[in-house]
Structures are given as structure tokens and as C-alpha cells.
TrEMBL record:
Keywords from the UniProt entry: Vitamin C
GO molecular function, one term: L-ascorbic acid binding
Superkingdom in the source lineage: Eukaryota
Protein name: Uncharacterized protein MANES_14G108800
Source organism of this protein record: Rhizophora mucronata
Region (Disordered): 1-25
């Protein structure tokens, strides 16, 4: 009987016992990249920043940002793009570029 009571206490209303945070889907939807680049947007230059990725990569990726982020400051766009690149690039690639900047 005590195990039934503890199971009921741990339930949160979802069939599999897990409930995602309510803001996760909204945050992901807001920061979703475009499928096609914005043709009329002129990307900013990231040449003057210390980056672990090529500055040209940031300029190219900027054209795929959603409109809400595209109209933000350069630093805000940089943070969003850096988070995306960090999440999807292998650690070895970041290390290789930061050790040997001539690969840029």
C-alpha cells in the first residue's frame, strides 16, 4: 500500500511520468532558424571579435536567424549563434580552430 501512495504522490499528470518545463517549447520555437536565408539582410561583421569559430560562419549564419533575433544588437545575435554552434559542433572542431587560427 505504501508504494501505491508514493506512486500517486510522484505523478504529475503525464502518462509517462515526465512533464517538460512549459517554456521549453516556446523558447525553442522562438529561436528556430529559418529554412531559407533572409535575402535582403546585410549581416554584420564579426572580424573584430575573439571567436572560436570563423567570423565568416557567424556572418553567414546571421542571415538564417528569426526576425525577432535578426533585429537585435550584434552582441545578442552573437550569443544566439554561439549557443547554436556550440551545441551542434564537435569539441574537436572548436579546439582545432582555436589552436590553429590559420584554418579560418
Amino acid at each position: 500500500m505504501s508504494t501505491d501512495a508514493s506512486r500517486k504522490a510522484n505523478r504529475n499528470g503525464n502518462a509517462n511520468g515526465l512533464m517538460p518545463p512549459p517554456t521549453t517549447a516556446a523558447a525553442r520555437q522562438k529561436l528556430r532558424l529559418r529554412l531559407n536565408p533572409s535575402a535582403d539582410h546585410k549581416p554584420e561583421s564579426y572580424e573584430d571579435m575573439q571567436l572560436e569559430f570563423s567570423p565568416l560562419l557567424f556572418s553567414s549564419l546571421e542571415r538564417y536567424l528569426p526576425p525577432a533575433v535578426l533585429n537585435s544588437s550584434r552582441d545578442a545575435k552573437f550569443q544566439v549563434m554561439r549557443n547554436i554552434l556550440t551545441r551542434y559542433s564537435p569539441d574537436g572542431e572548436r579546439t582545432r580552430v582555436s589552436i590553429n587560427p590559420s584554418l579560418l
